[in-house]
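Mods, move this if it's the wrong board.
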Amino acid sequence: MPSDSSLLLLDKTQVEALLEPAGVLEAVRQAFILHSKKAGRLFPVVREALPSGAVFGIKSGDAENLSLLGLKAAGFWPDNRDRGGEPHQATILLFDPETGRPNCVIDGNAVTTLRTGAAGALGLLHLARADSSDVCVFGTGVQARVQLAYALQVLPALRTTRYVTGDGRPDTGFESDFSHRCRLMHVFDRNTAVAASDVIITATPGNGSLFDLEAVRPGTHLNCIGTDTEGKRELPHGLLAKARLYVDDSSQARRIGETQWAPGTPCTELGDIVAAATTAPRQASDVTVFDMTGIALQDLTVTRMLLDRACAAGIGTRISWPW
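Not the wrong board. C-alpha cells:
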C-alpha cells in the first residue's frame, strides 16, 4: 500500500561491497544490447558549468520491458580536493515506471568508475587486435586504473604498459597497483610511447591533444574516455578521418565526445557489434577508435543489479517513503 512505501539507500561502502567486475561487465553488455535493439531509451543529456567552477550533469533513460526508469546526477567539483574529498560526484536514482515513486538512491561514484571500465573492456574485446601486447595509458587516476585493470583481464597478450602523467613525474601508487601485473614503464616522450603501443587508453581531463597524429601507427586501437563535455579533447586533429570510428551513442558522441571535432565522420555504435547486429571488420593495418561518452542505460542496468543483490542480502538502509 502507498502508506507502506519505503526507499532503499545504499552508501559508498555498501555499493563497493556489492560491485564486482564480472557482474558489472555483464550488466554493461546488457545495456549495449538494449541500446542496439532500441529496447532502451536515452533522454537528452544535461551538462552545465556552474558559477563555482564545477560541472553538473544528468543522464537518464528507461527500458520498458525491464521496468527500468532512472537517472544519474553527476559532475566534477574540483574544489573538493581542497576539502579532502573526491572531485567526481554521482548519485543514482531508480524509479517505479508505473507510479513514479523512487525505489532506491545510491552513491554512484563506484558505479560510474566500474561501468566505464567495463564499457572500455567491451571496446577492447570487439575492436582491438587479440594479439595486442603493448598498451599506453594517459593518466593514472581512478578511471585510468580501472581501464588498465580491465584491459589486462580481457587482452591476455598484454605484457608491457607505458604510462604518461600530466606532471611528468612517476606515480608510485599507480606503479604499486600494476607493477606485479605487467611490465610497467613511466615515459616522457608521448609520441614514442604511442608509436610503440598496440592499444592507447586516454583517461585525462581532456584539456587538449595528447600526442601527434603521426605517432599513431597502423593496427592501433584507441579507447578514449576523457572527452565527455563540449570543448574537451584528447585526440589530435585528423585522427578520426583515418580511423574506423566506434561510439556508444552517435548523437551523444557528436555533442560531447571526441566526435564533436569531426561530427561528419561515419561511425558504428558498439552496441550493434555487441548485439551481433553487425560485425567489426578489422584489417591488420586498421586504426580503430572507441569514443566513449557513457550512456545512462549502463548506469541503470548496473544499478538494477545492485538493487537485486542488496535486497537478496539485506544490505542497505530502508526509510519510510509514504505517498
